[in-house]
Amino acid sequence: MRDPVKLFWLHVNKTDTCWLWTGSKYPNGYGQRSHVSLDQYAHRTSWILHFGPIPVGQQVLHRCDVPACVNPEHLFLGHVNDNMQDCINKGRFNLVNFSSHPGERHPRSKLTNAIVIEARRLHKTNVPVKTIAATFNVSLGCIEDVLYGRSWKHIP
Questions:
Q1: Quick one: pLDDT at residue 97?
Q2: Could you list the residue range(s) of the whole structural domain that residue 9 is in?
């Protein structure tokens, strides 16, 4: 079996500032590292390689706010509340929607602002909800959340 540390470094591009993970990534942009059927964020692996085990209940946070960065100088430990406060302090958290990436900015969003507006317009003209869901290739639950104001609240 190949050395997991050497494999890790094969996927790191060191720039003048960030060390960018070039391997696979999660949809949120964070590096994904797989080893012996264990998926882990690449920045957590970097922390372990440089500083040792991550204490229980701690998260590895980024000073640079670059999800793919694994530079140990850009990483620090904190609790969930520290992570949320850091997100709020840096203006990355939308307190109204409780999402750091509302609407079409969310990495997994299947909809766009324009589609949401059109879906709501169709709903007002009595087009069946199932038809609207099929039109935009989303689940019935997804389109119901949009139409009944449970999601996409930032779009009037």
A1: 47
A2: 4-89
